[in-house]
Amino acid sequence: MPIERKRLVQEMNPKVDAWDPDSFLSVGNGNLAYTVDCTGTQSRISHTKGKTPLCTMSSWGFHDYPGKEQKHYERLILKQYEHAGRTVGYMSDDTAQEELFHDLRVNPHRCNLAHIGLQASVPYDINKGKSFTQELDLYSGVITSDFMVEDEPVQVHTLCHPKQDQLSFRLKSPLLERGKLHLSLRFPYPSHDITASDYTKPGNHQSVLVEYGDGRYCIKRTVDTMQYEVQILASKPSVLQQTAAHEFIVSSSHELLEVGVLFQHGKEREEVVDFSQALDACTLHWASFWQDGAFIDLSLSSDPRAQELQRRMILSRYLLAIQCSGNTPPSETGLTCNSWYGKFHLEMHLLHAAHFALFGQGELLERSLSYYLDILPGAYERAKSQGYKGGRWPKMTDPSGNDSPSAIGTLLCWQQPHPIFYGSLLRKTYPESDMLSSWVPVIRATADFMVDYVIWDAKRKAYVLGPPVIPVQENHDPEKTLNPTFELSYWRWALSEAMDFMKQFEQPVDPTWKHVLDNLAPLPMKDGLYLAQENCPDTYTTHAYDHPSFLFSLGLLDGRDVDQKVMEHSLMNVMEKWQLNELWGWDFPLMAMTAARLGKPGLALDLLLMDSPKNTYTANGHNAQRPKEDLPLYLPGNGALLLAIALMAGGWQGCETPHPGFPKDGWIVQAEGLKTFW
């Protein structure tokens, strides 16, 4: 019997009845997202530390502070590290160059394109909230908000066009007709902080209004060297007026006002469409999103946790679709607000987007992968500058592909095999992908660097990894880290997959790849337990916090080099001795994948739903990281959750048990269309 997808999706519609920065809802299309309060707009400019700011952000909206457009990497003094008998320089020390180091980290930064809210000529207390009812219909992508102002009803419908960077609003209220309610647009100067906004510098940017007639307007924005346009279409009878240097209001003499707001940059020109056209496109898109591809139904389960897991799964799918399916890799807070200045962390790209392929929507992963082709020349240059062959991918980066100085990020290496992971993932789950044939140079560049990066140890007659290197578990000294377990497994897995990829496309395989693969060092262990890295005998004592990444060799990877008994003992020791409250949101799902593969489905579910500060999911579905990190949302946690559920429900190669990650007692799992990758 087919799963009732529409009913199950709409049962999880988020509902809001008050101003609550933990419950702000968003609409988006992967390249543009707009986050709203309980009015369905951004009615207030405010931000409380650790809470979600209200922003309108895009995949292309990046800004440099004046004079910082040129990135003077050549002025940086690199810290030199010993590696295989030579020195390699890294941008890892800011001593005596703090300003330059900081400038290269914060520029460019993502910016808030506009603040679009309601402006009333009569005061109303949004904090009382007694009259607010708001619901996001996940199946149509439309937010409906109803509330009272001056004892008069106000209704707002909010949506984002799925194919172009347009927001659309339908406002209905007697206050509109009486001139007491308007839709306002305010434009801040950019900022690198979490709000991406600075309202204290009105003289540093320009907003020029052009009226075309017939309800069409354009606001031309110039912000230092950044330029973009805001095309506006307002229903008749209405007027758009400029009320301050960067403030505009749309007013109507009718109780119904429809406004389309289209953000444009570059040479491509699009037309803003009216509300009905945008609504039709949005409704069709989201119905297709939920009906196409895979779906998992846990609703028949008797375990009381099933409803919450279903909620987290469905909301995570929506959030990642609107935040992480765009033309570039996302930041860790997507298009909601700035984390790490809105830059991409490429080691997290896998957790943001790999699930799309497993849920039968490989095209949503494919969108952001062309970025690697764009920045491949820079990857070659980076490797060459450090004395390596092939291409070395950046860690914390931006649309240009530049790396960011960092005491940790520049020495991190687990993002390096990711392009091979993506190629293998598409090849196995989305073989019709048009990108696969173009991916050959990416595979070659990635693997060439990997085999040149390892060091031949003549005494043990094996290739070793590091130093200097910082593993997934970032609390290790890079100059003492040798053979981190997960990275060593990832090198082994990725080189094997790279050779299979090249053979499928009838491309020559460098014999060095196989030689390195056949002679990589074994995974480090002590007393029957895997170590975080070879020089860390205190893995389960003084280092028992942060990511227990050695567990992910069997879970995120297929464990082809893992002793399952040793891995089982390692997992149970982590459960007993690790500071679990220090784990990040994505650690819990990846550990659940390990538990599932070890035949411990009960533990897998316990890990997925563990009560821990960074494993909380707010009413809008976001995985907040509190209290230490103070991140109101953290999309790698949502993406890892979906990876884990896909594995637990869909299984893996060689596993004949249906839904092997779920216990038989209390769980009934129905799944349609899941792809098997591992």
Notable characteristics:
678 residues, Beta-galactosidase, Chain A, domain 5, Glycosyltransferase, nine-stranded antiparallel β-sheet, 32 strands
Provide structural commentary.
This protein is α+β, with helices and mostly antiparallel strands and 678 residues long. The chain folds into 2 domains: 16-64 and 108-283, putative glycoside hydrolase family protein from bacillus halodurans (Beta-galactosidase, Chain A, domain 5), CATH 2.70.98; 296-672, Glycosyltransferase (Alpha/alpha barrel). It is built from 16 helices and 32 strands. The strands form 11 sheets. Strands 1-10-11-12-13-22-19-18-17 form a 9-stranded antiparallel β-sheet. Strands 9-14-21-20 form a 4-stranded antiparallel β-sheet. Strands 2-3-4 form a 3-stranded antiparallel β-sheet, covered by helices on one side. β20 and β21 (247-252) form a beta hairpin. α5 (306-323) crosses α16 (635-650) and α8 (362-385) crosses α10. The model has no long low-confidence stretch (mean pLDDT 96).
